[in-house]
């Protein structure tokens, strides 16, 4: 297992989360940002909701991001590079943590300036198949004063992480409450979950 995968497994085992810088290198980030989907996000992304299926609600006061689900079979090459890396993470986590992950789901995400996602857990009320939350940020030259932190509520402390280009954050979906602080710039990422069942195509 390579060092990145080892750090992810150890972080999840010891503290319930891991943060890996340069999970995607600068060229890989640029290639994803250059995709038409992102340049055209205002037109093609959907307002993200809360809940699932019939319970799905749009509530701007809770979350203000826009998303586009990734269809693996038609994913462009730069996104495929990322998905292949996620597949390696699944294998490593299954070997190291006995989570029986079977699949993943990923969406491209844009938070317009000023939007946020209030404190929450990533599991749905009637569905606990999301085991790990995995986010990779795509924001070049992002600085502290731009805000946009991911804030994690840990048992003894609160920790903030900037959404830096290439940074991967991975955490136990059932354990770690978190929120997205509003930023001054558009904030882009790939947001996903590793599941203990095969992903449904409900989103697409
Ligand atoms: O973008 C982030 O930092 C976290 C996003 C999030 O919490 C979610 O989509 O459930
Ligand atoms: Fe979340």
From TrEMBL:
Protein name as catalogued: 2OG-Fe(II) oxygenase
Lineage: superkingdom: Bacteria
Keyword Iron: yes
Domain Fe2OG dioxygenase: 97-196
Keyword Lipid biosynthesis: no
Alphabetized InterPro entries for the sequence: HIF_prolyl_hydroxylases (IPR051559), Oxoglu/Fe-dep_dioxygenase_dom (IPR005123), Pro_4_hyd_alph (IPR006620), Pro_4_hyd_alph_FE2OG_OXY (IPR044862)
GO BP, sorted A to Z: cellular response to hypoxia
GO molecular function, one term: peptidyl-proline dioxygenase activity
Pfam families cross-referenced by the UniProt entry: 2OG-FeII_Oxy_3
Lineage: Bacteria, Pseudomonadati, Bacteroidota, Cytophagia, Cytophagales
Keyword terms: Dioxygenase, Iron, Metal-binding, Oxidoreductase, Vitamin C
Cofactor names: L-ascorbate
């Amino acid at each position: 297992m390579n060092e990145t995968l080892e750090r992810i497994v150890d972080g999840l085992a010891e503290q319930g989360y891991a943060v890996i810088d340069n999970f995607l290198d600068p060229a890989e980030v640029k290639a994803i940002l250059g995709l038409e989907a992102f340049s055209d996000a205002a037109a093609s992304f959907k307002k993200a909701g809360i809940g699932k299926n019939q319970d799905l609600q749009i509530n701007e006061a809770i979350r203000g991001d826009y998303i586009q689900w990734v269809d693996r079979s038609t994913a462009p090459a730069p996104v495929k590079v990322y998905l292949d890396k996620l597949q390696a993470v699944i294998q490593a986590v299954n070997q190291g943590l006995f989570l029986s992950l079977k699949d993943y789901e990923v969406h491209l995400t844009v938070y317009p300036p000023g939007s946020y996602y209030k404190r929450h857990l990533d599991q749905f009320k009637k569905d606990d198949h999301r085991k790990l939350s995995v986010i990779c940020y795509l924001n070049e030259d992002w600085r502290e004063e731009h805000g946009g932190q991911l804030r994690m509520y840990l048992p003894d402390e609160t920790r903030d992480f900037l959404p830096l280009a290439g940074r991967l954050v991975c955490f136990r979906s059932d354990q770690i409450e978190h929120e997205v602080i509003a930023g001054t710039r558009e904030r882009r990422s790939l947001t996903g979950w590793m599941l203990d069942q095969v992903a449904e195509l409900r989103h697409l």
